[in-house]
Design brief:
elongated; polyubiquitin modification-dependent protein binding; Ubiquitin-like (UB roll); 2 domains
C-alpha cells in the first residue's frame, strides 16, 4: 500500500478492507472488516487515530496485519457523570441489546436515557454497524429530563400576570 506520512492508520485499515482480494493469497477470501484488523509495527499495535508519522513509520517498512477471529469488539459508553465503561459487543448487535447491557451494569432503565454517537441519537431498532460504530468507539449516555411541562396551576398564572403588570408599570 502506498501512503504518505500523514495517512491515518484507520485509513490504511479501510484500504485493506476494500482491496483485500488483492492482498489475499487465494484472491477469493472475503474482506476483513476494519474492526477485526490489528496493524502492528515494531511489536506495537498501531492506534487508528494516529498518522503513520505519529506511529514512527517512515519509508519502505513492513506493517503486520493481525486478523482477530471473532466479531466481538470493545466500545466505551460514557455516563452522565463522565465515567466510561467498556462493553463487549458485536457490530450486528442492535442499539436495544447494548442498552440492555448498560441497564444491567448502570442499574438504570433504558427509558431513562438515550445514547449519542457522532452527534446522532441512536435508535433501538438499528445495529451498531448501521451507525458505523467500531472498535473503541465512544458513545455518550444522556439522561432524559424528567418531570412535566409548564405548571398549569391557577396560582402560578396569577403570579406571572402580577409580575408582568409590575414590570410594565
Amino acid at each position: 500500500i502506498n501512503a504518505n506520512p500523514f495517512t491515518k492508520v484507520a485509513t490504511i485499515k479501510q484500504t485493506v478492507q476494500q482491496h483485500w482480494c488483492n492482498f489475499s493469497p487465494s484472491r477469493q477470501s472475503p474482506p476483513v472488516p476494519v474492526h477485526q484488523q490489528r496493524l502492528m509495527f515494531n511489536n506495537t499495535i498501531l492506534n487508528d487515530s494516529e498518522t503513520l508519522l505519529e506511529s514512527g513509520i517512515l519509508d519502505n517498512v513492513t506493517i503486520t496485519l493481525l486478523v482477530t477471529s471473532n466479531d466481538k469488539m470493545d466500545i466505551f459508553v460514557r455516563n452522565s457523570d463522565g465515567r466510561s465503561r467498556t462493553y463487549q459487543v458485536q457490530p450486528t448487535d442492535t442499539v436495544l441489546s447494548l442498552k440492555k447491557k448498560i441497564e444491567a451494569v448502570e442499574r438504570i432503565h433504558s427509558n431513562q436515557y438515550y445514547l449519542v454517537f457522532g452527534g446522532r441519537t441512536l435508535e433501538d431498532k438499528y445495529t451498531l454497524q448501521h451507525y458505523n460504530i467500531k472498535e473503541h468507539s465512544h458513545i455518550d449516555m444522556n439522561l432524559r429530563l424528567r418531570g412535566g411541562g409548564i405548571c398549569q396551576s391557577k396560582e402560578a398564572n396569577v403570579s406571572l400576570c402580577e409580575m408582568t403588570r409590575f414590570y410594565q408599570n
